[in-house]
Amino acid sequence: MIRTRAYIINITLCLGGLLFASCGKQYTAEQTVKAFVADNMKEEVNASVIDFADLGTTRHINDSLIAKMRKNGAELFKSGIKYGQAPTGDIYYLRMKYLHEGDTLQNTFYLDSELEEVVAFK
After folding, report:
1. What is the C-alpha to C-alpha distance for residues 94 and 90, in angstroms, rounded to an integer?
2. What SS3 state is found at 12?
3. What is the model's pLDDT at position 3?
4. What was the pLDDT predicted at 19?
5. Within 13 Å, how many C-alpha atoms sit on residue 4's CB side?
6. Which residue ranges in the chain fall short of pLDDT 50?
7. pTM of the predicted model as reported, rounded to 2 decimal places
C-alpha cells in the first residue's frame, strides 16, 4: 500500500513537471512571435491577436522551403525582414490567428530550437 502510494505520487509529480515544461515553451514561443509581429508588421496595419495553436515540431522544413518562405513573406508584413538562423533537425512552429479589418487571418511561424527567433513564416 505504501509503495503504491509513493508510485502514484511520483507519477503525478513527473506528469506535472512535463505539463509545466510544455506550458513554459508555449509561452516563450508566443512571446517570440508577438515580438516578431510587432517589429515586422507594416505600421499602417491594425491587427489584434485572437489565438495561438499548440506549439509543434517538424522535420519537414528544409533550407529551400525556408528560403522560399522568406522570399514570399506576407502581404501585411514589411519586406527585408531579418530572420534567425535555421537550426538543423527539428524546427518548432506556432500558428497565430489574428483579426484584421474584420477578417480572421492566420500565419504559421517557424522558430529556432531555443524559441528565441523566428526563422521563417508563411
Report:
1. 13
2. helix
3. 59
4. 41
5. 1
6. 6-7, 14-21
7. 0.77
